[in-house]
Amino acid sequence: MSGPAGTALVNGAPFALPAPLPVDDVVRRFAPGAVRDGVARGVAVAVGDAVVPRSAWSTTLVRPGDVVEVVGAVQGG
């Protein structure tokens, strides 16, 4: 991966990017509690206004200036 270091917004907070990172790496760094056995569970991700399918997490890059929402599922009623 190459590109300038910068910052994305993840759930409204600045998130330092040493370089563009795949969505799955951002989830591992931002929400480590959701990762079990190396796989994020109960999490959905949007970059900009688009939900990123889990099958595309490893190939969708988060770049400086991107706005990312990481949402966790909550059980209950």
From TrEMBL:
Gene3D superfamilies: 3.10.20.30. It comes from the Bacteria. It holds the Pfam family ThiS. This is Sulfur carrier protein.
